[in-house]
Amino acid sequence: MKRRKTKTVTVGSIKLGAKHPVVVQTMTKVFTTDVDACVRQIRQLEAAGCGMVRIAVPTKADTEALAKIVAKVTMPIVADIHFSAARAIEAIEGGAAKIRLNPGNVKDPKDIKRIIDCARAHKIAIRVGVNEASIRDLKSDVPASQRTALMLKELKSYVRLFEKCGFENLVLSAKSADTVRTIEVNRAIAAAFEYPMHLGLTHAGLPEDALVPSSVAIGTLLAEGIGDTIRVSIAGDPVQEIHIGRAILRSLGLEQTQRPQLVVCPTCGRCRIDVVSLAKKVKGLLANVDKPLHIAVMGCVVNGPGEAADADIAVCAAEGKGYLYKNGKKIAVVEEKNLLKALAKEIEKL
Fold first, then answer.
1. Does some domain include residue 82?
2. How confident is the model at residue 319 (pLDDT cuts 50, 70, 90)?
3. pLDDT of the residue at 58
4. What residues pair up with 127 in beta bridges, in sequence order?
5. CA angle 34, 83, 97 (to 5 degrees)
6. Residue 2 domain-assigned?
7. Residue 130: which CATH number?
8. CATH, residue 291
9. Among residues 214, 229, 251, which one ends one of the domains?
10. Which residues pair with 16 in a beta bridge?
11. Is 164 within the bounds of a domain?
12. Can you tell me the distance from the alpha carbon of 95 to that of 64, in angstroms, rounded to the nearest whole number?
């Protein structure tokens, strides 16, 4: 999959841009002033495959805590800034590798210049963002059909301001709660600039409600070569955000994983065994396997062998038994009660 041409931006130990892997990120969801809780959550996120993490710093106490957090973790920390230039400067001086800034929320151009100068001195990146909610705040009468153009216009004005100040260590983002609008505005940004881009669908909802729209918006853009870092926003455990984000990347071949891939047929009236139950047990077998294996559980021998032909190991079920395949070739016929054990034995050989 060919990615759009971009500049490279450095965020601590991470590089963002088309020459580098797409990075999955999230936010901490505990009080920043609770340093120990924040550090614990960041380490959990790192173990799950998070590349960078953003933390909220609305008060001076939060930026003071940020400095302590930075000293205890290895992951690049991004400070989430909204209205205060003072908080931005404190966060940068406290060790943030990047700040997230919506310049429209910082009204005085002199304050933005101060932030830019501080970021330049500390050689950090700035994510310049615009979102549909802020556009509606500016012009509440703007119809939905015109918001994409207005968001792009607003972002262009921000980028011109930064470039006029000689600062190009930028990551761009545009957020909306609307899936189609998110796709439209990010396509427009990708066509207008060569800066790395942060993708996400804002206010995506509970995990079960956020999964599909986030995957559609982010996946569509990534499939078009757009996007250098992603955040799946859900109301809940941030570790779930990382799992979903990495799954999106894997589905597009954008993440080289050492984890097994389990493929399961959707089941139909041809099934003569409990495919779902067997698949869950197989998934349990794979929980501690650190190899990029392709394992398939198929419910019948009609389509199963063909659909599982690319699998390292596959089982295609029949009445009371299953046919084991290895790299597309049948190697054994096993009674249903022994299928899991037989699969486990073959997986161990790989």
1. yes
2. confident
3. 94
4. 100, 171
5. 60
6. no
7. 3.20.20.20
8. 3.30.413.10
9. 251
10. 9
11. yes
12. 10
Do 240 and 332 share a domain, yes or no? no
Band of pLDDT at residue 216, cut at 50, 70 and 90? very high
- The reply to whether 297 falls in a domain is yes
Residue 66 and residue 178 in one domain: yes
Same domain, 86 and 233: yes
- Is the dihedral angle over the CA atoms 208, 209, 212, 217 positive or is it negative? negative
Could you tell me whether strands 23-27 and 229-230 are parallel, antiparallel, or unpaired per DSSP bridges? parallel
Q: Summarize pLDDT for 285-300 with one digit per residue, the tens.
A: 888 887 888 899 988 8
The conformation of residue 3, written as its DSSP 8-state character, comes to P
Is there a single domain that holds both residue 232 and residue 306? no
168 vs 95: CA distance, rounded Å = 20
Nearest to 238 by CA among 53, 59, 36, 72: 53
140 confidence band (pLDDT: 50, 70, 90)? low
Single out the residue in 251, 269, 303 at which a domain terminates.
251
| Phi, psi (degrees; rounded to nearest 5) at 333 | -120, 125
Q: What is the pLDDT of residue 141?
A: 65
The pLDDT of residue 311 is above 70: yes
Cβ burial of 143 (10 Å; 0-12, 13-18, 19+) is: exposed
Residue whose entry in the numeric block shows the structure tokens 């089941």? 267
> Is the pLDDT confidence value at 134 over 90?
no
- Structural domain boundaries enclosing 178: 9-251
Q: Is the CB of residue 227 less than 8 Å from the CB of residue 195?
A: no
- What is the DSSP secondary structure assignment for residue 235, as one 8-state letter? S
DSSP helix/strand/coil, 19:
coil
Buried b / exposed e over 193-212, threshold 16 CB at 10 Å, is bebbbbbbbbebbebeebbe
Q: How many domains does the chain have?
A: 2
Is 197 in the same domain as 151?
yes
Copy the structure tokens of residue 209. Answer: 């409600």
Q: Does residue 152 sit in the same domain as residue 79?
A: yes
Q: What is the mean pLDDT of the chain?
A: 90
Q: Are the CB atoms for 7 and 217 separated by under 8 Å?
A: no
